[in-house]
Amino acid sequence: MSHIVFISGYNYDSNCYLIDNKILVDTGAGENKDYLFSKLHENGVEPEDIELIVNTHCHFDHIGGNHLFPNAKIAVHKLDAIPIRNEDTLGTAGTAFGFDNINNSHVDIELEEGDKIADFEVIHTPGHTSGGISLWDGENLICGDTIFAGGGVGRMDIGGNYEDMKKSVEKLMTLNVKRIFPGHGPIVEDNGKDHIKLSYSYL
């Protein structure tokens, strides 16, 4: 099973997750490079060591730091690749928060349901965005802004869809999740399945 390092989000940044010292899930808003790099250095990793960036969805606070890793290929679901490539600041939610120049229009890999990343399987979990994904390895769930610790789901008023979110959380409820690694806030160390059920109760 892959090793996951939790890098807590700072300011506008999403949480980031370092997998096996070479894959980075989400890169934050790109405004706090020194902070992110310091967390990588604490784990003996240089920015040049990152081979793959996986974005859980296309919002600016998750993709803004992609350009900080020139050696990495960028992977995102094929539906969320569209606003990134089009530099659509409405689709990436940058406009809503004053981030109009995200400077990240590059996508190398378009992900789909069932794709494999290290020991993880890609699960398409739309709702927060049309191309939101979660990563699942049979025990750990990296879920972007689909669900959060203690219950709750990602906002659906910026390119989201309520019915999609409901179906996505229903899908996650079928998994025997132990640990949850969300896009913001604390992680869940145990009984992740209970947090998913609680999230569903808010829908």
How many beta-strand elements? 11
Instruction: Count every helix, treating DSSP H or I runs of 4 or more residues as helices.
Output: 5
Overall shape: it is: globular
Order of helices and strands: EEEHEHEHEEEEEHEH
Distance between the termini: 32 Å
Backbone CA Rg: 15 Å
Taking all residues together, what is the mean pLDDT?
94
Secondary-structure-derived class: alpha/beta
Low-pLDDT runs: none
Portion in helices: 10-25%
Q: What percentage of the residues does DSSP assign to strands (E)?
A: 15-25%
Task: Provide the spatial order of strands within the biggest beta sheet.
Answer: 1-2-3-4-5-6
User: Largest beta sheet, briefly?
Assistant: 6 strands, mixed
Describe what you observe in this structure.
The protein is an alpha/beta fold and 203 residues long. The protein is 22% helix and 21% strand. It has a six-stranded mixed β-sheet. Strands 7-8-9-10-11 form a five-stranded mixed β-sheet, with no helix packed on it. β5 (73-77), α3 and β6 (109-111) form a beta-alpha-beta unit. α4 runs antiparallel to α5 (192-201). The chain starts with a strand and ends with a helix.
Tell me the layout of helices and strands.
Layout: E1 4-7, E2 16-19, E3 23-25, H1 33-42, E4 52-54, H2 60-63, E5 73-77, H3 78-85, E6 109-111, E7 116-117, E8 120-124, E9 133-136, E10 140-144, H4 162-173, E11 179-182, H5 192-201
Parallel strand pairs: 3-4, 4-5, 5-6, 10-11
Antiparallel strand pairs: 1-2, 2-3, 7-8, 8-9, 9-10
Helix pairs in contact: 4-5
